[in-house]
Batch of 2 targets.
Target 1
Amino acid sequence: MESTAAVALESPTPILDRLAPVPPPDKRAARRKMILGLAIGAAMGPAIDVAVWRSPFLWRQIAVPFFQWLDMPWTGPRVLSLVLSLLAAVVAALCIHEAGHVVGGLSTGFRFLSVRLGPLVIERSGRISWYWGPGALTSGMASMSAARRDRLRQRAAVFVLGGPAANLLSGGLALAILPALSLPAGLFLTASAVALILAAIPYQLQIGLTDGGRLWLLWRNRAPCRRWLALLKLQAESREGVLTEARWAEYLAEAVAVRDSTPETVLAHAFACSAALHKRRDREAGEHLETCLRYLSCVPPAQREGVISDVAVYLARRRKRADLAAQWLADLRTAANPLMRLRAEAAVLEARGDIVGASRKLDEYEASLLALPKGNPQREMLLRTLPGWRAELKAPSDHTAA
């Protein structure tokens, strides 16, 4: 045991080499966020209550209809009506919030990729899928990429502000237009207010920063802000295949300048690993993967699977360590995304000398990629790596990974 610990200390990549344990998902962080959420909810209730009691307009519009509704007899249909109205109000506020992000992004030159409304995901191509990861039932997300580089900080601020602004505008219109709020309208107004307040509070969720957190980064314009903007540029230009070597160096320098317990750290070093592999700097690529693994506890499951797949492929194709790669592949046995497992399996077969088996596995991998809708960022980026990989399988004397 002592000798293993000594070797782990000497190795520059102990987690990668399976000499140190893989950081598990941070359950304590999830508990802290739950406690923070309860505290925010406990503080919001009295704040809204005081605002309504002290405003004659809000008292007339919200409190009076609510108390009238409470005085009515409680029956089964009324309880069902309350539940359905509450559900509809939450869904409407969520949809309006994400639509605000999309409109804000499109109006400032961002390219729409997908929008998630609870568990429902609508992609650019029109394809509909389901998401059951963190925040599936309590949040949404608008995914957009920067189509151009100019004034990105200001345009990103408009994109982020679009969601809270949409909730504020829709709630204000409901108050201004309706002479007296019905129960559904009152619940919608409440859901909009809650969505606005939660979005405005700057804190880190497992799925990323809140809108308030993003705006705080943009306002301070310090290293974490520059990292996020650099990642937006890297994602946008790498998807389009127009990223030059000079821009890679410029963006990566800003992206890896900060290391903290956020998914952005892992994403930044994944990009840096890709750049190092492209330049045949295998040792540097391994060190970037080690950094990804070191902060793996703070990323959502899909990103975690992607990193583990990258590690298996790197060990199999660059270090020719089929034994280590197979151990990482075993961690993908129950992966939600089969693509990550298929590419790792192909790499392990190649490292073992089974070129025919690796080629067949790549065919299966390619078929799964092609089944994804056109325009899917993951589809396009991974498809671009296949021709080089196949060419190296046909030339076993030059087995270095693409």
Target 2
Amino acid sequence: MLPVIPRVGDFLNSSQRPLHVSKKSDQTLKLLDKVSTGWPAPEKLESANLLEQGLYAILRRTLEPAHAATVVAALRANYSDWNELRVAQAQEICSHLDIPEKLKLDAARATKEYLQEVFQRSHGLELEFLRDDQQSAARFVSILPYIGLGTAHWLMWLASAEKEVPVTQGLVRVLDRLGLIARNSSSKKMRAAIDPLVPDGREVDFLLRFGEVGSRWCDARKPACYACPLVDDCRYGKKAFREWQVQQKRLEQQRVRDEARRAILAKKDEEKRKKEDEKRRREEERVAQKRAAADARKRRETERLARIEAKKRETEAKAKAKLEAAKKAAELEVKRKADAEAKRLAAQKEAEKLAAKKKLADARAAEKKALAEKKAAEKKALAEKKAAEKKAAELKAAQAKLAAKKAAEKAAAEKKEAARKAAEKKAAEKKAAAAKAKSAPKAKPAAKPAAKAKASKAKNGRR
């Protein structure tokens, strides 16, 4: 929704409107047309307090009415109080604005600048005191470098119930220097003098443009009359401008004299510089030669020291190599001894192990030998016993054999004796038989087998 732009006449009743235009009013119109604020006059924002009206006026310097009203509404909706907005970051403020992206940052910075200046000048963030506290209002608008006198006058005009033109020191100073009024300490007399000067329907222009003059050029102590667009119509400004021109001429003459003096000094300085350069050049050549000789000596010394250092490094390297070799040999010897000791210990351990094994084996062998010897002794005893038994048996057998032999010999002798006796007997019988045969008739032949059987039986008996 676009803000309603009221006409200034809507705030004035018929008794307040000027009935005629004076010559000073005509002069005021001409002066107003020469001044440009650089931005459009703000409109009154509906349903807004004076702080928001001021913010809207500041935003109108760079934004269209619709965008400025949108920004004020967005900030009012997204921040609980104006101090939170004052201390917020510009990027955070930008995130709440629904306007073209390129306008957001400038709008956010302008908002922070405006709120910061209000806070510093009024020690608060509300401007309602402009409605009824004239002294506080006068102190507030005395120094407003960012807001400016024009916008401050417009806020005071809005705060006025009867829409009166505010009487401030800045406005009185500007009009007094322009020769439109005579400065007076009475506010009522100042208002009576200023009211006829305000063109009908251009109250806002009057406040904004003369406020702009007071803020930008018509400073109380150091006015910049030479840059003011109203210098040709200002008694104070003409005088100040003439003084400024005289001062500028004097400054120009002084500048010319200073330039001439600087030129002479520059020429002398140039000659002096040339001499010093020549002297410096000779000195530099001498220093260069000296430096070259010193460099040569230094180079020779460096080379000598380098040779010494190289020889030293070589000696140290040899010593280090020898030390390393000795160290390595010592380490090898230590390692060798350690290995030998380890081998000796291993061999000792192995020997002990073998000795233990051998001892165990010997013990076992001894035990086995003792067992074997025991067994052998037992076996030998058994063998000896068997041998003794055998010998006894053999002896007994020999005795038996001898006895048998004796018995056999005895039997053989007995048999032989028997055979002899038999033979003798037979011979006797044969002799008897022969004798008998001789004496008796021949016997029958059947008697031979019986004699043969008897001889065989005798032979078996000898065996």
